[in-house]
Amino acid sequence: MGSVLPNAALIAPGPVGPAQPAATPAAGTSGAQAASGPSFQELLNQQTNSLQFSRHALQRLRQRGIQLDQPTLGRLTEGVQRAANKGSRDSVVFVDGTAYVVSVANNTVITAVGSEHMREQVFTNIDSAVIA
Asked: Which of 8, 56, 104, 115 is deepest in the core (most CB within 10 A)?
């Protein structure tokens, strides 16, 4: 009789062959951080501190031709942080004639309105306004 092939459905997932010893961290490094690259905590802080933009906000920026450069983004982020420090949940942040409606609790820009569209807008459900 020939060799019997195992049924692949009955084999547990994982490496096949002799067991390999677990990798140990190199001398001088801790198990919490790899030899190169940022730690999990640093990545988490970056993600939780960076301002997010909703799909709607991105559409409005594009439709209304609102340019968002690095200095403007920095001022917007600072304005959101100031609102958060005062306990705001939903705020409108004014930066250079543009109004950004922001969910401070979620750190997310909901929409943006340029100065040329400001007359037509009514901002509702906000608890603060920041001029940044």
From this structure: 104
